[in-house]
Design brief:
three-stranded antiparallel sheet, 11 strands, eight-stranded mixed sheet, alpha+beta
């Protein structure tokens, strides 16, 4: 059993911080005219990646030693001002293991509760075996296959499965296309595609950082749902992560969603939640 103490949570939240920092760097290289920005706040990072970006958020903060998570309200205020100047709501994803004083500070500054998400984890062992899928083939994507992979993932995202207790955030297709293209230029990211009945059935992403395998963006085309595609994508990525030496896999889901149900069936445990607080929404 995994026990989600502050040490484990700090490790997981640290991967969130590094992703936000790395993504802003990638966006700066690829789209300098957008003028992406990043601020270090309470051990986390506030990323302003561009208009409508799902990476416009403050995440990874508040878990660790007192020195690491001390909140500099001056830096926070500078980030808030820039977000406001560009007309972008600042969203904070705050782990439940963070000090309650942080949530109190955000509420005092006018943030309001807008959502919640669950962080699940699963231990990985070297050489661990995972079942091979029946009727579904999963392979790691290649550059020449990125365009059809991207189309499949975006189509899957566009048609939710209707099983979530709360709807996921809705981003325009063109924004997600740009963001997914940028994120897959980052070190440690790989794309995975599933085929079934002779056609592309879905796709997903994997990032391995600091021994943590982060599972992102699994989507199944509507015609292929309820046929084991999500499970096949999950097992293939876990198999690869274990081979790369990761000892922990994580996934973030909407509470009560089909994705959470599938993850828990595959040995993931609910570690902690994140409260979503938003300023300027």
């Amino acid at each position: 059993m995994l026990f989600a103490d502050t040490t484990l949570a700090a490790r997981i939240e640290g991967t969130v911080t590094s992703l936000l920092v790395d993504f802003v760097a990638a966006a700066t290289r690829r789209r300098p005219a957008v003028d992406p920005r990043c601020w270090s706040i309470a051990g986390g990072a506030a990323a302003l990646a561009g208009p409508g970006s799902p990476f416009n958020k403050l995440g990874g903060l508040g878990v660790g030693t007192d020195a690491d998570v001390a909140l500099d309200e001056g830096t926070l205020g500078a980030a808030e001002a820039e977000f406001a100047r560009r007309g972008v709501p600042l969203q904070v994803e705050l782990a439940s293991l963070a000090p309650p004083s942080l949530a109190a500070t955000f509420m005092r500054r006018g943030y309001r509760l807008t959502g919640c998400e669950h962080v699940l984890g699963r231990a990985l062992s070297p050489g661990e075996r995972f079942p091979e899928a029946t009727g579904v083939t999963v392979t790691q994507g290649t550059p020449d296959r990125f365009a059809p992979w991207l189309d499949a993932v975006l189509e899957g995202f566009a048609v939710p499965d209707g099983s979530s207790a709360a709807p996921p955030e809705d981003f325009p297709r063109e924004v997600l296309m740009t963001e997914l293209t940028d994120v897959h230029t980052l070190t440690g990211f790989t794309a995975w595609e599933a085929t079934r009945a002779g056609g592309l059935a879905g796709g997903a992403s994997l990032r391995v950082s600091d021994g943590v395998a982060q599972l992102y963006g699994a989507a199944t085309l509507p015609a292929h749902r309820r046929h084991g595609v999500q499970t096949a994508l999950l097992h293939a990525r876990l198999r690869e992560a274990a081979a790369l030496g990761a000892d922990l896999a994580t996934v973030t889901t909407q509470p009560g969603s089909k994705s959470q149900h599938n993850a828990q069936r595959q040995g993931f445990e609910l570690l902690y939640s994140r409260t979503v607080l938003t300023l300027g929404a």
